[in-house]
Amino acid sequence: MKFLIGYEVPSVRGTDEWKDRISRARKGTVDARKLQAFAEASRRWRERHPEAARQVMRTSRQRRRLRAMTIVGRGVIKCDRCGVDDPRILEINHLNGGGRAERRASEHDQNLYGPILRG
Rounded mean pLDDT of 60-86? Predict the structure, then answer.
């Protein structure tokens, strides 16, 4: 477990272990009830600790965004045009446009970063 702002934070979700649990549950090699119980415990923790849960999600989104920028930038987070390297002001755009329709269709930023992170 990790600690953040004085709260105990579940350290499994979003990790390879969590992905492995989901994968095994889908294949039927893990009892789906155990996975459901873990998901329910995570939900209850988020309800009891909303501030810490927001911080965990914010940190997770920031890590996903930086990993996606590193992949798109071929190992370097930097603007190809002007050379700015501050990730707070950089954004990912489509080369030939069309990103607005994609953003309208998606509800979450992970829909943008997910395909990039999966390769």
Answer: 86
